[in-house]
Design brief:
The chain is mainly alpha-helical. It contains 16 helices and 11 strands. The chain has one domain: Alpha/alpha barrel (Glycosyltransferase), CATH 1.50.10.10. The protein has a 3-stranded antiparallel sheet with strand order 9-10-11. It starts with 21 loop residues before the first helix and ends in a 9-residue tail after the last helix.
Length: 498
C-alpha cells in the first residue's frame, strides 16, 4: 500500500440503521410483537438444533464433565458481553473511503454485507469493543461457531488499518501526546460504546498502542487461521495487502536488522503492566509465527518474491530467537539480562499455538523446534502450574525458575484464564493431553466452583483469591482447546451456527 496516496480518517458520524434483526422484522414499532411471535413458534426447532450441536461433545466419554461445562457455559459472554450486531448503512465503507494507489478492500465486503457488523466488549468493566489483543484468544469461539461473524469482524479491523486519526491526545502511562490512530497499524479496539464505535477507534488511553508489538502480528496470524478453517480464498486475497502493510509497519521494531523484533522497555503488548525489554519470548514468538504465515500465504497466492523475503527473515530471526532466549529448558521472558529476564512465562509458546491451530508448525514453515517447544511446555507445567497454589489454580503468568511467582508487576503474578485455556490448547496440540486438561481444570474449578464466579469469568485472579475485571472476553479461548482436540481426531471445517 502506498501511504502517501491515503487520506485522513473520516470523522463523519454514521449511524447504523438498526440491529441485525431489523433486516427481517423492520424498524417500526410493531417489530416487537413479530419478534415474540417468531420466537414462540420456532423455539422448539432452536432447542433441537442446540441439542444436535452439543450432543456429540456431551456424550464423549473421553472428555471430563468439567470441560464440557466450561466449553459451553463460557459462551455466555458472546451474548452477555455488551454485544452489538448491526446492519451496515447502505452508504458505509469499511475503510472510511480511504484507498491506496493499488486499490483496497471492497467498500462493503460480502461477509459484512450479508451478516452485518459484530462487536463485543473486552469486558463488562473494560468497555471497549473488539479489543484486538484479547480477541486474539477469544476469537476461536467465533471462527469455530460463527465463522462469517469472525470474518466480518476481521474486515472491520482491516478497514481501519489504513485509516488514520491525527488528533493528538494524552496517554496516561507515558504522559505524552500522540495521534489517536496511526496508519498501517492495527487498532487496539474499535471504540467505546458511549462514543461512536467503528467511526472513532482506540478508546484505550493507557498506552499509545501504535507502538505495541503484538497487535499487527495477531492480525496476520488470525487471517491465516481463519482462512485455514474456512478456505475462503476471496477473504485471503482481500487480506493479503493489509497483512503486507502491517508487517511492513512492524519491521521498524527490528532495530538491529537480525530478523527479530525488540520490545521497547515498557509494557508494549497485551500484558500492559508487565515491562519487557529487547527480544522476548512472547512478542518474538508471535513475530516468527507471523513470518511463517506470511510465507504460507505468499505461496498460496503465488507471490514468490514476498515468500522469499519472509523465508530469509524467518531463518535469521529464528537463529536470533534461539541464541538470545533459549536457556536449555525454556525461552526466557526477555533478553535484557535483568535479574528477572529468565522468568518462565506461561504464554511463551503463543506463536506456536497459532501455527498448530492453522495446520502449520512442522516441515517447511517452522519457527520453533518441536523438542524445544515440548521442553518449554513441560517447564511451564512443572513451575507455573504444579508449583503454583498446589497445582490447583491453573498457570500463573510468570514464575521464577526457583519456583516462586514473579512479582515484578501486578500482572506477572496473576492467572489469566483465557491465557491458560490457550496454553492448554498448545499442550494438546503438542501431544500433552493430560497436562493440558490438568492445567485448564485448575481455572475452571477456581472460577466456577471455589470463587463462585459462574457466568462472570474474570480476566485475572491471584493465589489469594483477589480477582480483576469480572465478565471478560478472553476465557472464550477454551474453544481453542476444542479445536486442538478436534484436530487430533481429524476435524472438518466449521459450520455456521443457527
Amino acid at each position: 500500500m502506498t501511504a502517501a496516496s491515503c487520506c485522513h480518517m473520516h470523522n463523519t458520524i454514521v449511524r447504523s440503521p438498526g440491529g441485525r434483526y431489523t433486516r427481517y422484522f423492520g424498524t417500526t414499532g410493531d417489530a416487537a410483537p413479530a419478534l415474540a411471535h417468531h420466537a414462540l413458534t420456532h423455539y422448539t426447532q432452536w432447542e433441537r438444533r442446540i441439542d444436535e450441536w452439543q450432543r456429540p461433545i456431551l456424550q464423549d466419554k473421553a472428555l471430563p464433565a468439567w470441560y464440557k461445562s466450561a466449553l459451553f457455559n463460557e459462551l455466555y459472554f458472546v451474548a452477555d458481553g455488551g454485544t452489538v450486531w448491526t446492519e451496515l448503512p447502505e452508504d458505509s465503507d469499511v475503510s472510511g473511503g480511504v484507498r491506496s494507489a493499488e486499490g483496497g478492500l471492497p467498500a462493503q465486503p460480502a461477509a459484512i454485507k450479508e451478516y452485518g457488523r459484530f462487536a463485543y466488549l473486552e469486558g463488562q468493566e473494560y468497555r471497549m469493543y473488539n479489543t484486538y489483543d484479547v480477541h486474539f484468544y477469544a476469537s476461536f469461539a467465533l471462527i469455530m461457531l460463527w465463522p462469517k461473524l469472525a470474518l466480518s469482524l476481521q474486515y472491520d479491523i482491516a478497514g481501519s488499518v489504513i485509516q488514520e486519526d491525527p488528533t493528538e491526545r494524552l496517554h496516561l502511562m507515558s504522559g505524552r501526546c500522540s495521534p489517536v490512530k496511526a496508519r498501517n497499524v492495527v487498532p487496539h479496539d474499535i471504540g467505546d460504546p458511549d462514543d461512536e464505535p467503528w467511526q472513532r477507534v482506540n478508546a484505550y488511553l493507557i498506552h499509545d498502542t501504535a507502538d505495541w508489538k503484538d497487535l499487527n502480528l495477531k492480525f496476520v496470524l488470525q487471517v491465516y487461521r481463519d482462512f485455514h478453517l474456512t478456505q475462503d480464498r476471496a477473504y485471503l486475497r482481500d487480506m493479503w495487502p493489509i497483512c503486507q502493510a502491517v508487517m511492513e509497519s512492524e519491521m521498524r521494531f527490528d532495530l538491529d536488522g537480525d530478523g527479530l523484533i525488540e520490545n521497547s522497555g515498557y509494557a508494549d503488548q497485551t500484558y500492559d503492566a508487565w515491562t519487557v525489554t529487547g527480544p522476548s519470548a512472547y512478542c518474538g514468538g508471535l513475530w516468527l509465527a507471523a513470518a511463517c504465515v506470511m510465507c504460507k500465504m505468499a505461496t498460496l497466492l503465488d507471490d514468490q518474491p514476498t515468500c522469499g523475503r519472509y523465508k530469509d527473515i524467518l531463518e535469521r530471526g529464528s537463529a536470533a530467537f534461539d541464541k538470545l532466549l533459549w536457556n536449555g529448558q525454556y525461552y526466557n521472558y526477555d533478553s535484557s539480562g535483568r535479574s528477572l529476564s529468565n522468568s518462565v512465562m506461561s504464554d511463551q509458546c503463543a506463536g506456536q499455538w497459532f501455527l498448530r491451530a492453522s495446520g502449520l508448525g512442522d516441515g517447511e514453515f517452522q519457527a520453533f523446534p518441536k523438542e524445544k517447544v515440548v521442553s518449554a511446555l513441560k517447564a511451564v507445567f512443572k513451575l507455573n502450574v504444579m508449583s503454583f497454589a498446589g497445582g490447583q489454580m491453573g498457570a500463573v503468568n510468570g514464575m521464577r525458575p526457583e519456583g516462586v511467582p514473579d512479582r515484578s508487576s501486578v500482572q506477572s503474578d496473576e492467572v489469566w484464564i483465557g491465557v491458560v485455556y490457550g496454553l492448554a490448547a498448545t499442550m494438546i496440540h503438542e501431544g500433552m493431553l493430560q497436562e493440558g486438561l490438568r492445567t485448564a481444570e485448575g481455572c475452571y474449578r477456581t472460577v466456577w466452583e471455589r470463587l463462585g464466579m459462574a457466568f462472570q469469568s474474570p480476566e485475572a485472579y491471584c493465589e489469594k483469591n483477589i480477582y480483576r475485571s469480572l465478565a471478560y472476553m478472553r476465557p472464550l479461548s477454551i474453544w481453542a482447546m476444542q479445536w486442538a482436540l478436534e484436530q487430533t481426531r481429524g476435524a472438518t471445517a466449521p459450520q455456521e451456527r443457527a
